[in-house]
Amino acid sequence: MYLTTKQREVYEFIKGYIDTHDISPSYEEIRDHFGFRSVSTVFDHVRMLERKGVLLRGASNQKRALQLVSFGRRSVTIPLVATVAAGSPLEVYAIEESIDVPEEMLGGGDNVALKVRGSSMIDSGIFDGDIVIVKRQSTAENGQIVVALVDGAATIKRIYYHRDRVELRASNPEVQPLFLTGEQSLEIYGILVGMYRKYTA
């Protein structure tokens, strides 16, 4: 995998920090180490390392959720079961394939992969064509990224519970949130635990 000089320096700093502290550095620590002007520069480097398949960002809001992709470790084959919309809900349809993913990417229990269509989650690092790893479960905590079935149609969003309704919020300021009342059926298909991206450009 080709990395530019600066990308490799950022990768090696993250790797060395994790080896020393058993936790990933924060974006602020990466910025300070390299003397970048802003955290957005760190984000750009992290995003490119993620696209090149050597780094993963955690699915939570944690500040220290960067994970190295350790090639050569044991991989696990999981089913690629459907396409899910990062936008308006769409019908799930079977793909009937499987993919091999690093074992550390998985959550406990039953894991499946889904291919993302749309751009409503781009600010969470989820792009059109990405494959997300989802732990099957019927509950989720406030703010988690979920795959939800709304009247049987699938979408991937952050979930927020309000007093009288449930909000499915995009990570794209151009996409309006979806507010659900008792008139619509909502089923949580699972929660996001990882993401798998092939870099081909």
Quickly list its features.
single chain, 201 residues, alpha+beta, Arc Repressor Mutant, subunit A, Umud Fragment, subunit A, 2 domains, ten-stranded mixed beta sheet, two-stranded antiparallel sheet, 3 helices, 12 strands, globular
Give your account of this protein's structure.
- The protein has 201 residues and is an alpha+beta fold.
- The chain folds into two domains: 5-68, Winged helix-like DNA-binding domain superfamily/Winged helix DNA-binding domain (Arc Repressor Mutant, subunit A, Orthogonal Bundle); 75-196, Umud Fragment, subunit A.
- Helix content is 19%, strand content 35%.
- It has three helices and twelve strands; from the N terminus they run αααββββββββββββ.
- The strands form two sheets. Strands 3, 4, 5, 6, 7, 8, 9, 10, 11 and 12 form a ten-stranded mixed sheet that branches.
- Strand 9 and strand 10 form a beta hairpin.
- It is globular and about 50 Å long.
User: Helix/strand-derived class?
Assistant: alpha+beta
Please report the distance between the alpha carbons of the first and last residues.
Answer: 11 Å
Secondary structure: number of strands:
12
Query: Mind telling me which CATH architecture of the largest domain this is?
Result: Ribbon
CATH class of the largest domain equals: Mainly Beta
* Unreliable sequence segments: none
Helix and strand succession?
HHHEEEEEEEEEEEE
Strand % is: 35-45%
Radius of gyration based on Cα positions: 17 Å
